[in-house]
Write a sequence for this structure.
């Protein structure tokens, strides 16, 4: 049966308006929670900063503009680092590394973890057994040493950092998605879909995936909150990309070149505060999104 | 229970295989990882090649490696020119001296803060404790350590900036116990404050949940004060999530060992990891990885078995 073109356009319009309504509704609910809104605004500014750092900083982050560890002044509000670069500009350019690593790690972790969690829970039995044994192995292997070793063996670069963090983080989405699908699959409508004769693949893609996506999204936001301090940790231990500016690298130089014994507090306090802010903001946003997208949780929290 | 032990054994084998794969296959040339250090004399290199069977095919090499691991032979450190096993055992004590008291202290601090926050639920004290705990939870521990050194060792020189004893010796014993304690205090305090955050939050949450249950109404109706009700009745019920968290936390405790020991130049296993990275010391890194993995796997199994005694619901399953 073929629909008239005008009817199809109407249908599309209606569908689109439904999506827009959903997004507006979501933003409205986000606005109701003050802390979530604040976190959202902070992260929004930081994302803009990571895309257009040149709009925010006065100096190039690689340019030597004065002598080493020059204290804060009007021209350099956060002083200079150990080779005479402007700390504020470094901080602003460092946002980019954190955001790239955070986003890539979270995205990859979901892309790997979500299918494994869904298939494992949906099929159960042997599939579940094999997939869960592998996941369990990665859960029990100490994650930070593993991360360090991977970053150490592979060539130091941004890709290596991302890969090393993904290897230890992907198990979290598996656990979260798996337990959600385990309870979903017992619902009546799934049984009904099966009885009517839908194939497994169709049930997963049509009935389970849409229900899981919001949870996957909030997990992704929280995963960014795990990935960013992990990147800082790797860079701080000296395994980051040496050509890249990041908050962790700044702390690495502050630590190895003795900024704190030289009393240069402006070199190591600001990067830490940035990491702290981002971690807290992503956690608050992730939790609030989980609450908004998953009405079941709203009662308990 | 026996099943769990067998599972753990398989896991350890898998970890050994995994680390073999990581160090031999990933960097390409296996001899680079084990004996490729240019600082080693040729005779030593050839001896190592023979010891690890690097001239044989990869599959055979794995069994040689496996046999060596079970004999406790993890190779020779590039940097220290000593057997890796020996270095690990020496450093292990330093880590235990720091981590065991610090972990216990962080749990106690977390319990105390959690009880106070829940007892004064909804008041200013609760808000302050909860915000502080969230802050501690989110602070990167290496940065927290740097701040503590800056504040209490550089600005107000109360404590040494690092090390385990003075610069004259690295050996510790009863003779210099006082000096060790003096060096121990700041890293220990830093560690316990940072790690108490999550314990506080979890205990407060689960205490609040228990307090809102029906049986607590009865206990209050019996005339108990809030504090007594928490101490005598709620705490027992609320402690299970805390125990779960503590048991799941070994990984994070290891992270703390790496970061805090590195910042405070405390010569334990965590600092050793940093040094191994710094000096490109493959055998040492591999040994550390195997050691950490084995400890983690054994801890997990122990906790699983302990759980059967603590939580009757697990026993029934």
């Amino acid at each position: 049966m073929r629909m008239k073109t005008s009817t199809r356009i109407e249908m599309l319009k209606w569908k689109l308006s439904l999506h827009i309504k959903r997004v507006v509704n979501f933003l409205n609910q986000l606005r109701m929670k003050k802390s979530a809104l604040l976190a959202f605004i902070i992260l929004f500014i930081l994302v803009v900063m990571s895309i257009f750092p040149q709009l925010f900083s006065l100096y190039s982050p690689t340019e030597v503009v004065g002598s080493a560890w020059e204290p804060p002044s009007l021209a350099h509000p956060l002083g200079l680092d150990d080779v005479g670069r402007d700390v504020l500009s470094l901080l602003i350019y460092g946002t980019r590394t954190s955001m790239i690593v955070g986003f890539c790690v979270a995205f990859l972790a979901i892309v790997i973890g979500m299918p494994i969690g869904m298939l494992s829970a949906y099929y159960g039995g042997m599939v579940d057994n094999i997939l869960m044994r592998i996941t369990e192995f990665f859960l029990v292997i100490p994650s930070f040493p593993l991360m360090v070793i991977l970053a150490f063996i592979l060539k130091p670069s941004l890709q290596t950092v991302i890969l090393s963090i993904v290897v230890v983080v992907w198990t979290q989405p598996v656990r979260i998605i798996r337990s959600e699908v385990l309870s979903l699959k017992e619902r009546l409508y799934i049984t009904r879909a099966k009885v009517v004769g839908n194939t497994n693949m169709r049930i997963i893609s049509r009935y389970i995936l849409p229900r899981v996506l919001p949870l996957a999204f909030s997990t992704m936001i929280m995963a960014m909150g795990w990935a960013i301090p992990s990147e800082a940790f790797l860079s701080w231990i000296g395994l980051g990309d040496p050509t890249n500016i990041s908050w962790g690298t700044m702390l690495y130089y502050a630590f190895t070149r003795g900024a704190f014994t030289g009393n240069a507090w402006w070199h190591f306090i600001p990067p830490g505060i940035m990491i702290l802010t981002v971690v807290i903001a992503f956690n608050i946003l992730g939790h609030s999104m989980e609450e908004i997208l998953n009405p079941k949780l709203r009662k308990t929290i | 229970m026996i099943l769990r032990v067998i599972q753990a054994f398989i896991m350890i084998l898998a970890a050994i295989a995994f680390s073999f794969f990581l160090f031999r296959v990933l960097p390409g040339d296996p001899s680079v990882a084990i004996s490729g250090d240019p600082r080693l004399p040729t005779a030593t290199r050839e001896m190592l090649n023979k010891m690890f069977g690097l001239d044989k095919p990869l599959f055979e090499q794995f069994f040689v490696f496996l046999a060596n691991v079970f004999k406790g032979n993890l190779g020779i450190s590039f940097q220290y020119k000593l057997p890796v096993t020996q270095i690990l055992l020496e450093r292990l004590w330093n880590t235990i001296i720091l981590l065991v008291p610090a972990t216990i202290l962080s749990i106690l601090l977390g319990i105390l803060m959690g009880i106070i926050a829940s007892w004064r639920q909804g008041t200013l004290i609760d808000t302050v404790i909860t915000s502080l705990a969230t802050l501690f939870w989110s602070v990167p521990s290496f940065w927290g350590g740097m701040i503590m050194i800056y504040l209490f060792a550089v600005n107000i020189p109360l404590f040494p900036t690092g090390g385990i004893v003075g610069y004259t010796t690295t050996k510790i014993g009863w003779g210099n116990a006082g000096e060790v304690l003096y060096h121990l205090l700041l890293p220990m305090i830093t560690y316990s404050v940072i790690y108490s955050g999550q314990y506080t939050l979890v205990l407060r949450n689960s205490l609040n949940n228990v307090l809102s249950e029906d049986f607590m109404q009865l206990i209050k109706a019996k005339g108990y004060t809030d504090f007594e009700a928490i101490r005598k009745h709620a705490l027992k019920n609320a402690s299970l999530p805390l125990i779960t968290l503590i048991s799941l936390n070994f990984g994070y405790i290891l992270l703390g060992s790496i970061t805090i020991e590195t910042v405070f130049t405390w010569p334990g296993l965590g600092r050793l990891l940093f040094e191994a990275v710094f000096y490109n010391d493959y055998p040492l890194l591999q040994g550390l990885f195997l050691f950490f993995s084995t400890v983690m796997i054994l801890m997990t199994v122990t906790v699983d078995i302990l759980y059967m005694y603590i939580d009757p619901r697990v026993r029934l399953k």
Observations:
- Chain B touches chain A at residues 11, 14-15, 18, 22-23, 26-27, 134-135, 138-140, 142-143, 146-147, 149-150, 154-155, 161, 250-251, 254-255, 258-259, 262-263, 273-274, 277-278, 285, 288-289, 292-293, 295-297, 300 (CB under 8 Å).
